[in-house]
Amino acid sequence: MKNTRFDLSTLKNWVQDKLPASATTRPEIPIYVAAEDRSAGGFGEAAQRGLDELEARLPPPGVVTQPAHARTWRRPDRLAPSESAGGGMVRDADGAQRPHYWGHRERLRGRFLSGGHQAMPEYELLELMLFNAIPRIDVKPLAKRLLLAFGDLNGVVAASERNILRVEGATDRVFLQLRIVEAFAHRMGQAKILNREVLSSWSDVVTYCRTTMAHRDTEQFRILFLDRKNRVIADEAQGEGTVDHVPVYPREVTRRALELNASALILVHNHPSGDPTPSEADIEMTGRIMAACGALDIVIHDHMIIGKDQEVSFRSLGLIEG
């Protein structure tokens, strides 16, 4: 095998030929693959060192090898929960001492399935979300860092990719997992209002708007389009802006309402600052939209501004009448 270049398939065949036909166990095969070997499409000098070591450790022909002792390998997150062994260690089902976090994932899943989320702190729920993104690593420290950075679960799930990746230990997979959770939450909230009469179930509208917009770090302007029976026929974002401004054009609002044959609108936008108090610009913009829609007999039921912890309604403030 000296000075031979070969692919992985050739390597496997060579190893199989070297093993006794009656062998009941295989030796560990140390194979060192250098980056330049991989890029060249084969294995070179780095792999040769591993092969030399392997050849020296193979049993003579005709010798049947037996394991020195049987071992059962377990994934760390599959160890059975057990009593503490002290010193940051736990004792698994076989009596061996393991680091305290071994088996933690299985225990956490069990607690969630048996008791639900109500009795679990936020960082443990976040851990459960992170399990798929980061396998076989203790994610509790990352969960706590994310909550410290963004305040609560809503803040974590709604945080931008740039801000998530600033947190130590967060990766692209973490951001993707959080975005998936956010999408599920939005779809569930949207399902409660789409094709339903919403003026008599206003709390569902408010809850949906909070979930969708309260923790955004830029302004977004959304419109709920309603038919003649005040059922929501569409929910659309009309504009994305900066931290304190989003451009909205009355002409585009009325054009889309006519395309959808909408009879009424509910306007919604957020204030990333957290304070939902309407600004002079908010009031002026609402007036221009109302004037454009009024000329087409399209009713503006309300304009809500969503803050971090509360929201305000133009109708409740007396800024929209009728």
Automatic annotation (TrEMBL):
Residues 57-96 are annotated as: Disordered. Residues 198-320 form the MPN domain. InterPro entries: MPN, RadC_JAB, RuvA_2-like, UPF0758, UPF0758_CS. Keywords: Hydrolase, Metal-binding, Metalloprotease, Protease, Zinc. PROSITE patterns: MPN (PS50249), UPF0758 (PS01302). GO terms for biological process: proteolysis. GO terms for molecular function: metal ion binding; metallopeptidase activity. CDD domains: MPN_DUF2466. The keyword Zinc applies. Pfam families: RadC. It comes from the Bacteria. Belongs to the UPF0758 family. This is DNA repair protein RadC. It comes from Jannaschia pohangensis.
